[in-house]
Amino acid sequence: MNTATTIEELRNERNQIKGIVGLVPTMGYLHPGHISLVEKARSECDYVIVSIFVNPTQFAPSEDLSSYPRDLQQDFKYLEEAGTDLVWTPTDQIMYPHGYQTWITVDQLTQPLEGQFRPEHFRGVTTIVAKLFNVVQPQCAYFGQKDAQQAAVIQRMIIDLDFPINMVVCPIIREADNLAMSSRNAYLSDAQRKAATILSKSLFAAHRLYEEGERNATVLKESISQIVQSEPLANLQYVSCADPLSLQEVDKITSGALLSMAVYIGKTRLIDNILLK
Length: 277
Ligand code: PAF
What we know:
Layout: E1 2-4, H1 7-16, E2 21-26, H2 32-44, E3 47-52, H3 72-81, E4 86-88, H4 92-95, H5 114-117, H6 121-136, E5 140-144, H7 148-160, E6 166-170, H8 190-195, H9 198-211, H10 217-229, E7 234-242, E8 257-265, E9 268-276
Parallel strand pairs: 1-4, 2-3, 2-5, 3-4, 5-6
Antiparallel strand pairs: 7-8, 8-9
Helix pairs in contact: 6-7, 9-10
């Protein structure tokens, strides 16, 4: 497995690659959810590049940038086992050198859901992903459905900025008790870890109502809200039932919907979602 730190090192490697390049952008502290993206890229591409960069511009000052979990040695081991060809680990200074002042913003799609509570977040995400795309120039890029709004926003950016990239969105990977895998699960105490299953429990219960024929979005959201409130350690920040493409709230589900939520378990903010087809 090759490694690169600087943009020059990455470009030197990139210039020698023939065939389809797949990029898996990550912030490290990898878990099986990330590895599923690498495996998908491995199965579809000739050369798989994984970037590891904890992007400071997508964290608000009040958020967990300084405590975000990191373990590069373990990440390298997992990536090697998954057949990664190259790991790129740029530094803050490389990605945002002194005087940096250029930003990519996607308008409407970044306003609802996560955008209501993390107003600067997507500007940071789209800026860094555009920079990763520019340097790596992959033909394919792999993201997780767990960050459903991020996937929609990046897809919009790819279209609007004419990146010649096929974006692949891979399913959420869950623990045995259905907690969606996330690097932030590492923050949870044992009791909080148990309580965190309330996210998927409530989403799956709403999904069952949907399968039984319920199409009223308020009824589904109310069901989620009640189930989350039954867990004393959980604090629901939002629950949404939105059109999966526009991310605008719907009243009645006519052609599928994205049910999504953010919940605080103690100080840890967790998100989860399910697509109603
Ligand atoms: O999903 C993530 O891990 C990050 O938001 C990403 C896409 C790597 C950009 O920093």
